[in-house]
């Protein structure tokens, strides 16, 4: 059963144009070609990345956070309550008004106490500012080094300047050592992101991030197997060209350096739009979708590869809408840049309101009615003539 499935999966008509096959990619005359089994190297690389990340976050990111003044938010811990904890973990983190009334009867808490308990419990589960900073600094470091390494590997290659060169001699394209390591390191890194997704900061676009990671891993793996390596290296370079700017903007945002964050974000937004909404669809996808059919007949791999590129492009459009919305709000209203995908603590406003209400009640008892923090004088007394 497995052998039949493997034979069907690796049949040449799915992976190559008519007349070409795996025999064309066998090493000969000192020329080396990409092999599917090479991809297993990415698994130990992914595990190494997970270890390096832990070391980096403790020895580099944490001291850097302290140097930049990243401060932890002090969060009040909720008192343990079996009923509320069970409801929170098994039913919902945001109970309805009717559910709150039922929980009040079960626990003996007032409605406000139940609401406060759930609010503080949700805040406990939210990632700390330090955790966000360490994650952003790790990604910033990788994306920056990956972009520099990718640029160094491609700077002297003709297909960086003339995209049609991607298909010259396809699929019999010799594998270069720089291409090998560029691919394995990128694939290992995205594999490590997929492994650590459960413990990383969860944002509102969590599902889109999962789709992006899976599509990227499939795209890198497939392009390797069918020797679309030249196209693959260009796609990775385009993606790495702006990601490190976003992560650096996050770092400054967490550190409270608002101006630096805002202006880096604007630069990131400009580069993101140019690379993801202009260069990627109108140059790279054009050269993988339109030009190859002038060289060979379309085949399954051709459609599969371009289908993955279109999934990435849809995600680019989704993220571009969020980025443009943030940038426009900053440019027109001079508001601070904020990541719309992040959940925010509920503590500040709610707790402050409760404290103000408590103070107002005290003032009411001491001084009578108050308005805007000042005693309201009674001016309706009768005058004696």
How would you describe the overall organization of this protein?
The chain is an all-alpha fold and 385 residues long. Helices cover 66% and strands 1% of the residues. It folds into 2 domains: 29-67 and 127-333, no CATH class; 82-125, Homeodomain-like (Arc Repressor Mutant, subunit A, Orthogonal Bundle). The chain is built from 13 helices and 2 strands, in the order αααααααααααααββ. A two-stranded antiparallel sheet has the order 1-2.
Task: List strands and helices in order, with pairings.
Elements: H1 2-9, H2 12-15, H3 42-68, H4 82-90, H5 97-107, H6 111-125, H7 129-154, H8 177-195, H9 206-225, H10 229-255, H11 258-289, H12 300-333, H13 347-367, E1 370-371, E2 374-375
Antiparallel strand pairs: 1-2
Helix pairs in contact: 3-7, 3-8, 7-8, 7-10, 8-9, 8-10, 9-12, 10-11, 11-12
């Amino acid at each position: 059963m497995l052998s039949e499935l493997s034979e069907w999966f690796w049949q040449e008509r799915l992976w190559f144009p008519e007349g070409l096959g795996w025999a064309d990619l066998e090493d000969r005359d000192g020329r080396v070609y990409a092999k599917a089994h090479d991809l297993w190297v990415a698994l130990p690389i992914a595990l190494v990345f997970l270890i390096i990340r832990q070391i980096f976050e403790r020895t580099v990111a944490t001291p850097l956070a302290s140097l930049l003044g990243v401060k932890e938010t002090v969060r009040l811990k909720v008192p343990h309550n079996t009923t509320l904890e069970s409801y929170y973990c098994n039913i919902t983190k945001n109970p309805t008004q009717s559910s709150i009334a039922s929980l009040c009867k079960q626990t003996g808490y007032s409605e406000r106490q139940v609401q406060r308990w759930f609010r503080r419990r949700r805040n406990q589960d939210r990632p700390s500012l330090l955790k966000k900073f360490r994650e952003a600094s790790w990604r910033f470091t990788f994306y920056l080094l990956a972009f520099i390494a990718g640029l160094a590997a491609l700077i002297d290659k003709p297909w960086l300047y003339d995209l049609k060169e991607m298909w010259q001699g396809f699929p019999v394209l010799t594998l270069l050592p720089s291409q090998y390591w560029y691919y394995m390191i990128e694939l290992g890194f995205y594999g490590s992101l997929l492994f650590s997704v459960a413990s990383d900061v969860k944002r509102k676009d969590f599902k889109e991030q999962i789709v992006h990671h899976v599509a990227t891993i499939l795209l890198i793996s497939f392009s390797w197997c069918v020797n679309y390596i030249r196209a693959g290296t260009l796609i990775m370079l385009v993606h790495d060209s702006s990601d490190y700017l976003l992560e650096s903007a996050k770092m400054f945002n967490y550190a409270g350096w608002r101006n630096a964050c805002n202006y880096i974000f604007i630069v990131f937004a400009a580069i993101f739009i140019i690379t993801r909404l202009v260069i990627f669809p109108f140059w790279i996808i054009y050269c993988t979708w339109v030009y190859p059919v002038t060289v060979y007949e379309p085949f399954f791999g051709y459609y599969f590869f371009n289908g993955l590129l279109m999934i990435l492009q849809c995600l680019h459009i989704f993220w571009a809408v969020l980025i443009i919305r943030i940038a426009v709000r900053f440019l027109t209203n001079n508001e601070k840049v904020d990541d719309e995908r992040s959940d925010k603590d509920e503590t500040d406003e709610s707790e402050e309101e409760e404290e103000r209400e408590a103070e107002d009640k005290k003032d009411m008892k001491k001084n009578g009615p108050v308005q805007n923090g000042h005693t309201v004088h009674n001016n309706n007394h009768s005058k004696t003539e």
